[in-house]
Amino acid sequence: MTSQDTEHEYTLRAPRYAVIQSRQVCWRCGHDTPVVGLLVPAEHEQLWIDDDPDLDEWERPDSASIVSHVSSLPATVLARLQAASPHYRMGSSKAAGDYFINHCVECGVVQGDHFLYGEPEGAFFLMSEGEVEATRATAIDEPFACRGDPSYSSLIDLLAQRVWPA
Ligand SMILES: [Zn+2]
């Protein structure tokens, strides 16, 4: 399952979610720009896509997840993200095609998810408890769905425990 799969409108769903906010130094102009992302709790479900569509199945991982390369979102969720940052909108990256991408508040260039989520300097690549602390998260008690790529780590679980204390 990847974000390139376009047959399924949504591949991930959850009873609630959080908008996460951090800051990223723009790779082009060096401006410190706000960026937003999505966190879902351990109760989320992800669609396991089989070669035989009759065998597609919703699975329930035991961990919270941060979702990247989001290519489909309900309007309600997009509105929440854009309320936090109007610079989050559909855009294009050479590496991964069209998806919802953060854009630099100063120069407008895309801040691609590969960099934000996949590189140590990336705003949403959580490397330490200090970075978890520095990530702002706003819990939203509304149903969630998207098509995107979930990622998992013990630090993501730590962030989720802060958002949704047991
Ligand atoms: Zn910039």
Please outline the helices and strands.
Blueprint: E1 12-14, E2 17-25, E3 32-40, E4 45-48, E5 57-59, E6 65-72, H1 75-84, E7 88-93, E8 97-103, E9 110-111, H2 113-118, H3 129-134, E10 136-140, E11 144-151, H4 154-163
Antiparallel strand pairs: 1-4, 1-11, 2-3, 2-10, 3-6, 4-5, 6-11, 7-8, 8-9
What does this structure look like?
The chain is of the alpha+beta class and 166 residues long. The chain has one domain (12-163). It has helices spanning 75-84, 113-118, 129-134, 154-163; strands spanning 12-14, 17-25, 32-40, 45-48, 57-59, 65-72, 88-93, 97-103, 110-111, 136-140, 144-151. The strands form two sheets. The chain has an eight-stranded antiparallel beta sheet with strand order 5-4-1-11-6-3-2-10, sandwiched between helices. Strands 7-8-9 form a three-stranded antiparallel beta sheet. The chain starts with 11 loop residues before the first strand and ends with a helix. The structure holds zinc ion (ZN). Residues 26, 28-29, 31, 104, 106-107, 109 line the site of zinc ion.
